[in-house]
């Protein structure tokens, strides 16, 4: 059994549509799909795009091998032999544009655009959304935590509670992009080069005759990496005094204990007490690590209570995006080939939010020349050149359509980059450190009003006049 081949990591309806296109003779018609989400998660003011690296790897490896073809042959749909032969020759020969990982992204703007034969573009929908939805969600959650604790160390502890193994490692990577400092997951460390860190569990203490012996043995084994978990029996009466004893023994060997970890009880009260005890013992360099179902709200609360915590270990609430476990990014057809030409298409809905934005689009971030800060994003048709040439543009606010703004003086940053062109990888893949610092530079483009945790100021994604008119025209045509 090959657990790693993702070619069939797709919904059956994609295979059925591919089959129907093959039967109908339209499989080679070109199509353009755009992925975007409609609502920001967690009431946040932005999302952090992630998932591209995995998408690239998936696209490059797509191929229908023998095992897959024989499985498809057995399906009750009775796919014809010619279709399976077609699949055996399949590879992705289309083009993909996407945002760079770590980019701050907003509702309704395309974050990935796929232009390919409909046969190819349809297949990849499910996996693309699966990667992007999860990783973007976790990077966004991690970014919320980072905004609350910008100066402390953030450790990702989530694997044991993650929704299985893939989520654990790609979630750890997403958290690192958004500013976490390390992960406890060794496979994520090895695969992605994320720094790893670890303390010890309660079982280490329970597994010895006394807490003091447990601490002593641990310090003996890893004298340069000692962070002691002090809450197994009684934090202030036993854990802390024993930890201080060990720290002093380490000092006599010229070593410094790194930290103590609190994992239960009132973390504000205990951290203040622990800090005082450490300082009074001349151990002001020993850090205080806290864990126990932490998230950005509890961390903010603990900080407001004056908790003396230097390092936050965050697991469950981060890796599962506990308070909002799904991002709703969708993948919509925006143009299709008709008589050899690409024509824009729309999907109408009674719910205005669900009416799609037609046409093949670019996204630019509009930067105020005076402040260097982002003022809004601007979607235009790929054939429109004004924004690329820095000429005056009209911003149409799609939510408040009476608000039209003429902008003449601005800088603009194109957000969609070529990833694949005619099946060839065109993107020079940044390493994880570069992605992480790119993300930091992205954050610096935004006013704090957009970044705050609670009720952030909405950041606008505008249409060009052309997109606006096209959308209105297609809606009118459909009404008829
Ligand atoms: N001072 C505080 N203010 C707000 N929340 C806190 C404070 N101290 C701890 N918490 C949080 O309260 C929640 C409840 O902790 P809980 O009572 O379940 O843990 P516990 O009983 O102390 O430990 P255990 O994990 O062993 O059950 C945790 O999410 C913890 O992070
Ligand atoms: O609380 P999280 O944010 O998920 O962080 C990871 C938790 O995992 C460990 O606990 P363990 O699995 O031993 O269970 P516990 O919660 O009973 O301590 C650790 O002590 C943290 O409490
Ligand atoms: O290193 C730790 O302290 C750790 C790692 C994973 C989960 N809980 C704690």
From TrEMBL:
The keyword Nucleotide-binding does not apply. GO terms for biological process: NAD+ biosynthetic process via the salvage pathway. Residues 361-471 form the Nicotinate phosphoribosyltransferase C-terminal domain. Its EC number is 6.3.4.21. Transiently phosphorylated on a His residue during the reaction cycle. Phosphorylation strongly increases the affinity for substrates and increases the rate of nicotinate D-ribonucleotide production. Dephosphorylation regenerates the low-affinity form of the enzyme, leading to product release. Keywords: Glycosyltransferase, Ligase, Phosphoprotein, Pyridine nucleotide biosynthesis, Transferase. It catalyses: 5-phospho-alpha-D-ribose 1-diphosphate + nicotinate + ATP + H2O = nicotinate beta-D-ribonucleotide + ADP + phosphate + diphosphate. SUPFAM superfamilies: Nicotinate/Quinolinate PRTase C-terminal domain-like, Nicotinate/Quinolinate PRTase N-terminal domain-like. Pathway: Cofactor biosynthesis; NAD(+) biosynthesis; nicotinate D-ribonucleotide from nicotinate: step 1/1. Belongs to the NAPRTase family. This is Nicotinate phosphoribosyltransferase. It comes from Cohnella lupini. The lineage of its organism: Bacteria, Bacillati, Bacillota, Bacilli, Bacillales.
